[in-house]
Amino acid sequence: VLTFDDGFADYAEHAVPIMERHGLTATMYIVAGSVTGSGVSVDWITGLDPAAAPPLLTPDQIRDLHARGWDIGSHSMT
After folding, report:
1. Angle at 45 between CA 67 and CA 20, to 5 degrees
2. Which residues of 19-70 form beta strands (DSSP E)?
3. Which residue among 9, 11, 41, 47 is least crowded, i.e. fewest CB within 10 A of its CB?
4. How far, rounded to the nearest angstrom, does the alpha carbon of residue 74 sit from its chain's CA centroid?
5. pLDDT tens per residue across span 37-58
6. What's the pTM value of the predicted model, to 2 decimals?
7. Buried b (16+ CB within 10 A) or exposed e, 15-28
8. What kind and span of H or E run contains 72?
């Protein structure tokens, strides 16, 4: 079982193509609050200013992963 936590956008850019080359999918646990119009601050990375945090997946990217066979779960709300 493969899982990815928090839903960072770079997973779609880097991990997903590698996984697809090997015929694999995984479960992506999204921070549910990030799917709202206002999004959510990435303030849970110790030692990193939230303004410098990597972006999270957009709702369109999440829908695309689901359409490609990935399971989507909720990691937390914020």
Report:
1. 25
2. 27-31
3. 47
4. 10
5. 777 888 888 889 988 888 899 9
6. 0.85
7. bbeebeeeeeebeb
8. strand 71-76
User: What is the CA angle 67-2-70, rounded to 5?
Assistant: 5
Q: Give the span between the Cα atoms of 67 and 6, in whole angstroms.
A: 19
- The CA-CA-CA angle for residues 74, 57, 11, to 5°, reads 95
When computed from its CA atoms, the radius of gyration of the chain, rounded to whole angstroms, is: 12
Q: What is the three-class DSSP state of 3?
A: strand
SS3 category, 77: coil
Distance, CA of 66 to CA of 11 (rounded, Å): 14
Residue in this structure with the two tokens 């549910």, named with its chain if needed? 32
Locate tokens 């303004």: which residue? 51
